Amino acid sequence: MDTEIRIERVLPATIGRVYDAWTRADVLARWYCPNPQLELKVQADVRTGGSYVVEMGPHVVRGTYLEVEPPARLVFSWQWDGTDDEPTRVEVVLSEVPEGTRMLLTHTGFATAEDAANHQLGWDPELDRLANLLTSVTQ
């Protein structure tokens, strides 16, 4: 098992809509949690050096935007509150394809393969929620 997550999806939306879904707090609050039963609150200052906080019920993740290149690339640190783990790194790369937007998400820096696998279990349903949101008429 690897200590890195790499997920590629083609999303049925323009690159602008997908980028907005990753950078607008009001849109993030509609999909950015794998469990739709949990209350979701998002604060995001999307600029290089800006920070974000995502509250998923009792679980809180926060980080800093390391690189912001609209509408094609976003890189940010990721750290759960209440742990001594070193921050990990998430990179989202978007590109236009005939079917919509190709999204490549890479999450690196995990200390163990088990930690990476646990995060994979979170990203998969979360990205399903993103795809469903982008398929809907309104965002």
Summarize this structure as a short list of keywords or feature phrases.
Alpha-D-Glucose-1,6-Bisphosphate, Chain A, domain 4; alpha+beta; 3 helices; single chain; globular; 139 residues; 26% helix; seven-stranded antiparallel beta sheet
Could you please describe the fold and organization of this structure?
- The chain has helices at residues 15-23, 25-28, 113-135, and strands at 5-11, 40-44, 51-56, 59-69, 73-80, 88-97, 100-108.
- It is α+β, with helices and mostly antiparallel strands and 139 residues long.
- A seven-stranded antiparallel beta sheet has the order 1-7-6-5-4-3-2.
- 26% of the residues lie in helices and 40% in strands.
Radius of gyration in whole Å, from Cα?
Answer: 14 Å
Strand order of the largest sheet: 1-7-6-5-4-3-2
How would you classify the helix and strand content by structural class? alpha+beta
CATH superfamily: START domain
Give a brief outline of the structure.
The protein has three helices and seven strands, in the order E-H-H-E-E-E-E-E-E-H. It is an alpha+beta fold and 139 residues long.
SSE arrangement:
Blueprint: E1 5-11, H1 15-23, H2 25-28, E2 40-44, E3 51-56, E4 59-69, E5 73-80, E6 88-97, E7 100-108, H3 113-135
Antiparallel strand pairs: 1-7, 2-3, 3-4, 4-5, 5-6, 6-7
